[in-house]
Amino acid sequence: MSADFFRSRWLGQVPLDRLFWRDMLLVGTMISMASSALALVLLGLKMPLGLVLAAPFAPVPYTIFLTISVWRTAEKSGGAKASLMMLGSALWLIATVVV
């Protein structure tokens, strides 16, 4: 990913709908699911426990970045829809990190 990808999201230059639905819920969830699947594969291959445990937590910084980006963009947008997306992003963060 390029620096422009991260910068545009951090600065709120990406439409909130795209950031929330595509970047966070769709792509972010797929990345989290893939890292969890990788952990299961590594466990099946009897890889070191540290590596197995690190795999599902590897996308956590990206997950936090997306959540904060949604909040920053939603604060600029304002309104009930933005507030719901802020709540949704917080719940998504909890779900992807805990589950």
Automatic annotation (TrEMBL):
The chain crosses the membrane at residues 20-43, 49-70. Keywords: Membrane, Transmembrane, Transmembrane helix. This is Uncharacterized protein. The lineage of its organism: Bacteria, Pseudomonadati, Pseudomonadota, Alphaproteobacteria, Hyphomicrobiales.
